[in-house]
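hiii, so i know i said id send this last week but things got crazy w the move. better late than never?? heres the sequnce for the chain we talked about at the cafe, plus the structure i predicted for it. fair warning i was half asleep when i ran it
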Amino acid sequence: MLELLASWISTRLGAVAGVCGFVGVGALALVPVWGFTWDAGYLPPLVAAPAEELRVELLTNGTTFGELLNGVRLDGNDQQNLLLAFQEHADPRRLRVGTEVTLRFFRGDGRIRGVDVAVSKDELVRLERDVAGWASIVVPTPVQVDTLAAVGSIETSLWNAVRESAGLASVPWADQAEVIGLVAQVFQSQIDFSRQIRPGDAYRLVFEREVRPDRTMRSGRILAAEVVNAGKTFSAVWFDLHDDGIGGYYDLQGESLKRAFLLAPLDFRRVSSRFSLGRLHPILNVIRAHVGVDYAAAIGTPVMATGDGMVTQRGVGSGYGNLIEIRHGSGEFVTRYGHLSRFASGLRVGDWVSQGQTIGYVGMTGLATGPHLHYEMRRNGAPTDPLSLDMPEGDPIPPSARDRWTVEFGERYAMLTNLSPTSGQRMADTGAPPGRSQAARNE
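okay and structure toks below
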C-alpha cells in the first residue's frame, strides 16, 4: 500500500516538473531580441462631437435682445427669467447695433443651453441654465502682454512717422493712433509736436501692451522713448514710484518730465493765431489784443486741462462762447479755454481737475470764424504768452527709490538702446543716472 502511494506521488511530481520546464522554455522564447521593438499598431483618432451647437447672431438696427430671443425655443417665463439674469450685469436696452450674441444649443434637440452676450470688447455676460432657471456671470476677455519696438525718422509729423513704422505694421490703425497719442503725452511738456518738428528729427520707442484675442489693444504704456529734435535728444523712461500702477516718466538722470503746465491743451494741433497785443480781429475788423493762443482743430477734439486746479467758471463767456476757467495752485495762474462746442460730462464749477483731464471739446461758439480752441493763461491777473512760459519742473526720483530706479531704468533703457538707428540718423546715447557705469549702460 505504501509503495503504491509513493509511486503515485512520484508520477505527479514528474508531470508538474515537465509543465514548469515547458513554461520556462516558453518564457525564454518570449524574451525580445535586443534592439527589436514590437509594433503595437495604429489606432485612428477618435473624434467626439461637441456637446452643444453654436449659432452667432448680431443685433441689428431696431432689433432688441428680447426680440432676438424670440427665434429660439423659450416660453414667456423662461425668456423673462433669462432677461432678469442678464440685467444683473448689463442693461439690454444699452446694447449697441452689432453686438455679438452666441446661442448655445443642446446637440440634436434644439433646446437652448446657454447664451453669451459680448457687452464690450473686454467682457461678455454668460447665461446658463441652473436649477432655479437662469444664472449669469461676467467672463473677462483673456489678454496677453507683449512688447513692441519702433524706430524711424520724422520728416513731416510724428503722426506720419509712427504710422510708417515697420515695428507697428501689424498693429491696428486705431491702436497706432493711441501709441502716437501716448508718445505726445510723454513729451508734451518738452516738445510741441505741432511747431517744433524739423526734417531729419528721429524717434525710437519701446511699447508694452495688453492684447485681446482679436489682436486689438486693451491698454498699453510707453516703457522707454527717445526723440531727437533739432539735434537735441529728449529721453523718457517709465517708473512706478509709488508702486500703484500709475507711474510717471523721468529723464536719464531721474528728473521728472512732468511740468506744472502742459505746453498745449490738445493733441496734434495747429497754431492758427498766436499771442499778440495788436492783432486785427477777423470778425470785428479792429485792432485789439489777442491775449491767448488759438489752436485749429476739428469740432469735437478733446480739450485737456493743462494743469491741476479748480474750475472757477463754466458757461457762456461773451465772445469766448462756451468757456471754462481754471484756477491753479494758490491762484497765481489762471487758464481759460474758449469757443468749446460742449463741456465734459458732469463737470461743474468748484470741481478739481487733474493735468491732462478732458474738460471739454473744440467748437466754434462765440466770436469764431471756424472751429478752434482759444487758450489763454494769466499770471497774477496779467495776460501771459503760454508758448513762452518757462514751466516749473516736477519732483525727481527721491533717494529712497534710487536703487530700484537704477535697476528698472537699466532694463528699460537697454531695450531702447538695442534698437537699430534709422539710416542717416544716429540716436544719441546721452548717458545714464549717476553711479551707473558705461558697461552697465551697454548691457
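btw The first helix runs from residue 2 to 30. thought thatd interest u
miss u guys!!
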